[in-house]
Amino acid sequence: MGDQWTLLVLRESFYGTRRFDAFQGALGIARNTLTERLDRLTGAGLLTRVRYQERPTRYEYVLTDMGRDFFPVLAAIIRWGDQWLGDGPGVPLLLRHRGCGHATTAVVSCGECGGELTAAGVVVEPGPGMPADERARLAGT
Q1: The model's pTM
Q2: Which of 37, 66, 102, 126 could disulfide-pair with 130, CB 3.0 to 4.6 Å?
Q3: What is the distance between the alpha carbons of residues 91 and 106, in angstroms, rounded to a whole number?
């Protein structure tokens, strides 16, 4: 995905930010850097540009289905940061589940049994789409 700016632009998108000036104001990012990140995210299919003004032409940047599907990744990063980087009186951001109303954190779980996935509890093995050279490299580790 790139660098920290890419994740921060996505985070702002999940907050509801859609316009260039709003991204820039929220992030304090240089215009050329923001332009590059928005182009990268639209090119990758996570955001789409939607024109909202004709003269001058202006666009909003809206999360696509692919972009919205990135939310669990961002939630996991938030959880990790809260656990390992927090130094204040509490977490800076709460994720409240609309379904039950509780503040929650991300948990990565097995799609079959629902058990939590951890590095110690998972074996990595080649899948059917892995190229042969990568398959050989993974087998050698």
Answers
A1: 0.83
A2: 126
A3: 14
Yes or no: say if 67 and 46 are a contact pair by the CB < 8 Å rule. Answer: yes
Nearest Cα residue to 60 out of 21, 110, 4: 21
CA gap 86, 73 in Å, rounded: 19
Structural domain including 13 reads 4-68
User: How far is the C-alpha of 129 from the C-alpha of 141, rounded, in Å?
Assistant: 19
Q: Which amino acid is at 70?
A: F
Residue 62 has a CB neighbour count (10 Å cut-off) of 14
Smallest Cα–Cα separation from 7: which of 30, 28, 31, 27?
A: 27
Tell me: do 58 and 113 sit in the same domain: no
**Same domain as 80, residue 63:** no
Mark whether 61 and 85 lie in a shared domain: no
Quick one: 78 and 55 in the same domain? no
Reported as half-sphere exposure (CB side, CA atoms, 13 A), residue 137 has a value of: 5
